[in-house]
TrEMBL record, chain A:
<comment type="similarity">
    <text>Belongs to the cytochrome c oxidase subunit 3 family.</text>
</comment>
<keyword id="KW-0472">Membrane</keyword>
<keyword id="KW-0812">Transmembrane</keyword>
<dbReference type="InterPro" id="IPR024791">
    <property type="entry name" value="Cyt_c/ubiquinol_Oxase_su3"/>
</dbReference>
<dbReference type="InterPro" id="IPR035973">
    <property type="entry name" value="Cyt_c_oxidase_su3-like_sf"/>
</dbReference>
<dbReference type="InterPro" id="IPR000298">
    <property type="entry name" value="Cyt_c_oxidase-like_su3"/>
</dbReference>
<keyword id="KW-1133">Transmembrane helix</keyword>
<feature type="transmembrane region" description="Helical">
    <location>
        <begin position="162"/>
        <end position="189"/>
    </location>
</feature>
<feature type="transmembrane region" description="Helical">
    <location>
        <begin position="219"/>
        <end position="239"/>
    </location>
</feature>
TrEMBL record, chain B:
<keyword id="KW-0249">Electron transport</keyword>
<feature type="transmembrane region" description="Helical">
    <location>
        <begin position="172"/>
        <end position="193"/>
    </location>
</feature>
<keyword id="KW-0479">Metal-binding</keyword>
<keyword id="KW-0349">Heme</keyword>
<protein>
    <submittedName>
        <fullName>Cytochrome c oxidase subunit 1</fullName>
    </submittedName>
</protein>
<dbReference type="InterPro" id="IPR000883">
    <property type="entry name" value="Cyt_C_Oxase_1"/>
</dbReference>
<feature type="transmembrane region" description="Helical">
    <location>
        <begin position="308"/>
        <end position="328"/>
    </location>
</feature>
<keyword id="KW-0679">Respiratory chain</keyword>
<keyword id="KW-0472">Membrane</keyword>
Length: 240, 590
């Protein structure tokens, strides 16, 4: 906005208490969320919408599981790996969860170094996050392969309700797609950080807008969300 | 509640939002086709929506021809009738009304009315339109696919939606429909995020939320609802697509089809109904809330009076939006769900009548002792109020479980929802087009053609849908292509059906006049000037008409007052633009 010479008024006037203050705060001039950039606000609202998608997926799964009249396969047995001569329940899922949660840690560090304008560390940590994410997707592919080889299909499985296979492939597949998209965007943003696009103000190829280091944080929001969703999938699908 | 900065220019807040990094087109393609300007995107959205809406209109004629004169037209087989009905419903609700209100009016009006240069992410906004276009093309392609489009009814209820007895169920029809819906939702989300963030974070100086025109409030709330409701439809579509293509059983119970055991087992059709209506009921208000908002502005402007109870109007919009998420199962009273469940949903449904009634009273009180100009937008606004009240009253019948059960699946329901979410919002669409066309094009729409269009549409809509209530009360079921000789249906119903068909074709003709008017007035309309309606809100105060790229001149406007300073006592003119800093007694247009 062009420089303004208009007078400044007193904006620190106390807000009224209670509900009125809440409303006054929200509806105040120009922005509802002070200090929040457009990109960040957009990501938050997108994640809210995405929450409803995963919420509907999980609720549908729970409905199917609770209303089925045939036995539901026992996740502890289905998702066990045969290691060192014994079945270890949920071991692969535990490792996958550990990997994904760790990637949230590296992502948070990347955001921190991004704000310190440490290009090299930011890019390396983002690449590490992407690598952990890719590892997660790889392990998921291994798990899918194992289950498919054991006869789990979207329409049937050897142990019980057919909805087990269909909900499993649908929900983990949809989550895996989110992780994969995240990995791709992590690589894109990491490359921009590495090249210093956010310092030279280079314009985006598609959007023709100048990027900012904030992109790292927005990327982080998405990544943490994908992790959080996994926690719910882990709890409701594997631990139930 | 008049929200005016008391001392004008002394109280200008500093700019919190930086100047927008606008994309400036440098070729014909980026200026008019792959444009990132919200105004161009709005026109693209509107044009596509109206084009596909025309298809749905023609389908409704074919349905009425069959119902009025059964057996006369050989090509309208029962299968074809179901296909026409399904596509008519889906196109009208999603691809016409939702796209037109949010993608069309939302894109055009939000940046202009809140004083922004464009949407916050023009590139994503552009993608939104192109994905919508692909969704429409996929939908249209189902007309040419083997087996034709789906005939499952617009609610797409399983199991029949994907079984062989339904047209398109085991062919391409249902697949293309589901894919098209999924694409629509993806595209809409891209646009919707833009609308919400633009309203929340990109307003001009002085434009607090409580100074926004109600149009923006309506579109904003509807968009938030759409972002939360469409996910349920998205999930339902994905799951049904899996059921259809890879043979899972989310919604499909074990059953015998054509004498053979179907491959499905253990799915729940009711689950689909819950998911569908968790989207479907908010969808009603996604269409209605922008209409509520727009009609408030039309009434206030053309009655030269401030809107009555602005703050209540805002709260009513938000309240209706919130409540509409807890009423969905009133579409499912006959699905066999628990009666206590029905009791809960009947209660919440009737509670919605409270904020809705507040809005109707406020519109009427705005008109009361106003300086009413019976311009075309005003006529359509009045028609909306009347029609909405009519449709709303039958909603009270259908919202109650005991009354709904006998009326369920009759033509009464068809009459109800056409009045309340078909005719009423489309009246606002027409009113809004007559109101804003002068800003979008710079010329007025032809008045004579407009009045013909209004009277035929308004009177005709009542001739169509009023008798339909009686047809339904007699017990004529909906979705039957032909009634045959049924003992409980008196001959008068057949006469009424012929009457309705003739009325429907007449109203259809009036829409052709309207479309002709849109094109004719492009060249031949009267020059509109910048502010033909002498309106206060920011879109009428732009640097030129149509507004240039970037909407406003070098400086964004600063807002000093709410959008409803009409006929302020003591003011020299009967309206004061929102960006006029002077006190009311000296204010008014320069």
């Amino acid at each position: 906005m062009a420089e303004t010479t208009l007078g400044h008024a007193d904006h620190t006037a106390p807000r009224p208490p209670g509900l009125r203050g809440f409303v006054a705060d929200w509806s105040s001039d120009q922005r509802a969320f002070k200090g929040v950039s457009w990109g960040k606000a957009m990501m938050w609202i997108f994640l809210l919408s995405d929450t409803f998608i995963f919420g509907c997926f999980l609720l549908s799964y729970m409905t199917a599981r609770m209303s089925t009249v045939v036995p539901w396969p026992n996740p502890s047995e289905v998702f066990a790996l045969h290691l060192f001569g014994q079945d270890v329940p949920l071991i692969l899922i535990a490792i996958m969860t550990f990997v994904l949660i760790s990637s949230s840690g590296t992502m948070a560090m990347a955001v921190n170094f991004g704000y310190r304008r440490d290009r090299r560390k930011t890019a390396i940590l983002m690449l590490l996050t992407a690598a952990l994410g890719a590892t997660f997707v790889g392990m998921q592919a291994f798990e899918w392969t194992k289950l498919i080889s054991e006869g789990v299909r979207p329409w049937e499985n050897p142990w019980g309700a057919a909805q087990f296979g269909s909900t499993f492939f649908m929900i983990t597949g949809f989550h895996g797609t989110h992780v994969t998209i995240g990995v791709i965007f992590l690589l894109i943003v990491a490359r921009k950080v590495w090249r210093g696009d956010y310092e030279t103000g280079a314009r985006g190829f598609f959007t023709s807008r100048r990027g900012q280091y904030e992109s790292v944080e927005i990327m982080g929001l998405y990544w943490h969300f994908v992790d959080l969703v996994w926690v719910f999938i882990f709890a409701f699908f594997y631990l139930w | 509640m008049v929200d005016v900065t008391p001392h004008g220019a002394d109280l200008i807040p500093p700019a919190e939002v930086g100047e927008m990094d606008l994309y400036h087109p440098h070729s014909w393609w980026t200026k008019y086709v792959f444009s990132q300007d919200a105004k161009v995107i709005a026109i693209q959205y509107s044009g596509t929506a109206m084009a596909i809406g025309l298809v749905a209109l023609v389908l409704s004629w074919l349905m009425r021809l069959q119902l009025g004169f059964p057996g006369t037209f050989d090509f309208i087989t029962p299968e074809a009738y179901y296909q026409f009905m399904t596509m008519h419903g889906m196109i009208m609700v999603i691809y016409l009304l939702t796209a037109l209100f949010l993608g069309g009016f939302g894109n055009y009006l939000i940046p202009l009315m809140v004083g922004a240069r464009d949407m916050v992410f023009p590139y994503v906004n552009m993608l939104s339109y192109w994905i919508y276009l692909v969704a429409v093309l996929v939908l249209v392609s189902s007309f040419f696919a083997p087996g034709g489009p789906t005939g499952a009814g617009w609610t797409l209820y399983p199991p029949q939606a994907i079984t062989s007895g339904t047209p398109g169920g085991q062919d391409w029809g249902i697949i293309l429909m589901l894919v098209s819906l999924i694409l629509f939702i993806i595209g809409f989300t891209m646009g919707g995020l833009n609308y919400v963030v633009t309203v929340l974070q990109a307003r001009t100086r002085g434009m607090t939320l409580m100074r926004m025109p109600l149009t923006v409030w309506g579109i904003f709330t509807a968009t938030v609802m759409a972002l939360l409701a469409f996910p349920a439809l998205f999930v339902a579509c994905v799951m049904m697509l899996f059921d259809r293509i890879i043979g899972s059983s989310f919604f499909m119970p074990a059953m015998v089809e054509m004498g053979e055991q179907s491959p499905h087992n253990g799915g729940s059709p009711i689950m689909f109904q819950h998911l569908f209506w968790f989207f479907g009921h908010p969808e009603v208000y996604i269409v209605a809330l922008p209409a509520f908002g727009i009609v408030s502005d039309l009434i206030s402007t053309h009655a030269r009076k401030n809107i009555f109870g602005y703050r209540m109007m805002v709260w009513a919009i938000v309240g209706i939006g919130a409540l509409s998420f807890v009423v969905w199962a009133h579409h499912m009273y006959v699905s066999g769900m628990h009666p206590y469940f029905g009791f809960f949903f009947a209660t919440t449904t009737l509670i919605i009548a409270v904020p809705t009634a507040i809005k109707v009273y406020n519109w009427v009180l705005t008109l009361w002792r106003g300086d009413i100009h019976l311009t075309l937008p005003m006529l359509f606004a009045l028609a909306f109020i009347v029609t909405f009240v009519n449709g709303g009253l039958t909603g009270l019948f259908l919202g109650n479980v005991v009354v709904d059960v006998p009326l369920s699946d009759t033509m009464f329901v068809v009459a109800h929802f056409h009045m309340v979410m078909g005719v009423a919002p489309i009246m606002v669409v027409f009113g809004a087009i007559y109101h804003w066309y002068p800003k979008i094009i710079g010329r007025m729409l032809n008045e004579a053609m407009g009045r013909f269009h209004f009277w035929v549409t308004f009177v005709g809509a009542y001739l169509i849908f009023f008798p339909m209530h009686y047809v339904g009360l007699v017990g004529v079921p909906r979705r039957y292509p032909e009634l045959g000789d049924t003992a409980f249906i008196p001959p008068s119903v057949h006469t009424l059906n012929e009457f309705i068909t003739i009325a429907a074709l007449t109203v259809g003709f009036a829409q052709m006049v309207f479309l002709f008017n849109l094109f004719w007035s492009l060249r031949n309309g009267k020059d509109a000037g910048d502010n033909p309606w002498r309106a206060t809100s920011l879109e009428w105060q732009t640097a030129g008409t149509p507004p240039p790229h970037g909407n406003f001149g070098k400086e964004l406007p600063v807002v000093y007052r709410w959008a409803y300073d009409y006929s302020v006592p003591g003011a020299p003119e009967d309206f004061i633009p929102q960006n006029d800093p002077r006190p009311a007694t000296q204010g008014g247009p320069a």
